[in-house]
């Protein structure tokens, strides 16, 4: 057992332990590696449990080649067999579901600990493994199948988390198999089940449950983490649906409701906004009402930030920052910028107020508020409503910081766009 390990453990001793485990496990079919008994499956689940909770105890963090051991091939192939049973509507025993649960959690933790990803890729970034997972996810998105099967939903969630981390570590955004999963995840976000799951969240919820975690947390992270050559195309595929979802959800959770909600709703809204931030801006042209909803949240910034709970305050700051970043992105379109200037003229002064320390100590919020103010304010109004000297000094500081940055940007805003915003106020 992992808990009994000490500093004398070596890669050789770990592999010898795995050899001993394999001797005790009976395989019914050598080709498919279907296990002979539930006792064998239970033992394999126990090993997956130990590996998932204490991967460093098995030295995987210093020697990922340990993943080349046959025991991991057996775990993977057994997972494939269980997923195939699920997809074929065969009866899946509780012990199989538990094994799938533990082994999927193990996979998500192994990615964190590995010093090299090649053994992991050889094991799991394979069509034989990913395609059954994708088929299962497609059924969740298409018909809501498995929605009440906690172990299945949890397993898919863990596998998506693992591949999200793997993709980031390896920059393998355009791997064809991971793109297959991306297509299925997009279907999940576009499904009515995403909207219903979101709308049914309880205001006092402090942690995700079952399908909530998959739909509202893990799937959005998998989408926004994709940074491959087809990013714009993929985002265009889901744009209209996610924008329609957003209209309904921001109606369901207006500023007054955000004031009293707990962290789960805040985190779900943050993930939603994180997707909207990367939606191509031209797709917002038919969704001007959504922009007005965003402005309502910004108008309520002061109230939202009057939060004593440090965790909730941090989430609310992130929510406001993403809302303002999205509005800033939208102002790159002349027509949409004109809509804000006409329909929300009286709100523009608010950005000047939010750019000072009087409202918030969050420097990123101050920064994006300053740039938004410059982008939206008219020449006639700037001296009437702005502390011009303070604003000028602030903008000069931002320009200098951007110039010094190796990427010529500040908080992700390119120097070129900063200059454009500043010129608009001169």
Topology summary:
Blueprint: H1 11-24, E1 27-29, E2 34-35, H2 38-53, H3 70-87, H4 94-113, H5 118-124, H6 127-143, H7 150-170, H8 176-190, H9 192-199, H10 211-224, H11 231-252, H12 255-258, H13 263-276, H14 288-299, H15 301-304, H16 310-330, H17 334-343, H18 348-354, H19 363-376, H20 379-385, H21 388-404, E3 409-410, E4 413-414, H22 415-423
Antiparallel strand pairs: 1-2, 3-4
Helix pairs in contact: 2-4, 3-4, 3-6, 4-7, 6-8, 7-10, 8-10, 8-11, 9-10, 10-13, 11-14, 13-16, 14-16, 16-19, 18-19, 19-22, 21-22
User: In which order are the strands of the major sheet placed?
Assistant: 1-2
Q: How many distinct beta strands? A: 4
> What's the N-to-C terminus distance?
69 Å
What is the subunit arrangement here?
Answer: single chain
Low-confidence stretches: none
What structural category do the secondary elements indicate? mainly alpha
Percent of residues in beta strands = under 5%
Helix content: 55-70%
What's the story with the biggest beta sheet?
2 strands, antiparallel
Task: Write down the overall geometry.
Answer: elongated
**Average pLDDT level:** 88
Radius of gyration, whole Å = 25 Å
Query: Secondary-structure element sequence?
Result: HEEHHHHHHHHHHHHHHHHHHHHEEH
């Amino acid at each position: 057992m992992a808990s009994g390990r000490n500093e004398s453990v070596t890669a050789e001793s770990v592999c010898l332990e795995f050899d001993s485990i394999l001797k005790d496990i009976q395989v019914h079919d050598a080709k498919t590696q279907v296990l002979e008994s539930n006792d064998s499956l239970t033992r394999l689940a126990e090993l997956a449990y130990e590996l998932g909770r204490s991967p460093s105890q098995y030295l995987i963090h210093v020697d990922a080649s340990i993943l080349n051991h046959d025991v991991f091939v057996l775990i993977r192939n057994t997972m494939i067999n269980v997923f195939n049973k699920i997809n074929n509507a065969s009866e899946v025993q509780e012990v199989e579901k538990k094994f799938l649960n533990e082994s999927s959690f193990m996979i998500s933790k192994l990615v964190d600990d590995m010093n090299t990803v090649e053994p992991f890729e050889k094991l799991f970034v394979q069509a034989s493994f990913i395609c059954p997972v994708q088929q299962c996810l497609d059924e969740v998105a298409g018909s809501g199948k498995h929605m009440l099967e906690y172990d299945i939903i949890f397993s898919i969630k863990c596998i998506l988390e693992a591949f999200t981390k793997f993709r980031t570590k390896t920059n393998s955004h355009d791997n064809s198999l991971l793109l297959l999963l991306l297509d299925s995840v997009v279907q999940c976000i576009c499904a009515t089940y995403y909207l219903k799951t979101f709308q049914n969240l309880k205001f006092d919820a402090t942690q995700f449950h079952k399908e909530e975690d998959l739909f509202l947390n893990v799937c959005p992270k998998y989408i926004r983490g994709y940074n491959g050559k087809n990013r714009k195309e993929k985002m265009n595929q889901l744009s209209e649906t996610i924008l329609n979802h957003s209209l309904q959800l921001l109606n369901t959770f207006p500023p007054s409701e955000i004031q009293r909600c707990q962290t789960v709703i805040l985190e779900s809204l943050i993930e939603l906004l994180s997707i909207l931030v990367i939606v191509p801006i031209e797709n917002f042209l038919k969704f001007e009402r959504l922009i007005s909803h965003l402005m309502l949240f910004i108008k309520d910034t002061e109230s939202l930030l009057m939060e004593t709970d440090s965790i909730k305050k941090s989430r609310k700051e992130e929510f406001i920052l993403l809302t303002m970043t999205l509005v800033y992105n939208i102002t790159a379109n002349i027509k949409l910028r004109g809509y804000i200037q006409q329909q929300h003229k009286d709100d523009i002064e608010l950005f000047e107020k939010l750019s000072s320390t009087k409202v918030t100590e969050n420097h990123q919020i101050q920064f994006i508020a300053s740039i938004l103010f410059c982008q939206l304010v008219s020449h006639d109004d700037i001296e009437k409503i702005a502390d011009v000297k303070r604003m000028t000094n602030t903008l000069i500081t931002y320009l200098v910081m951007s110039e010094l940055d190796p990427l010529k940007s500040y908080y992700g805003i390119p120097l070129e766009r900063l200059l454009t915003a500043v010129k608009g106020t001169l």
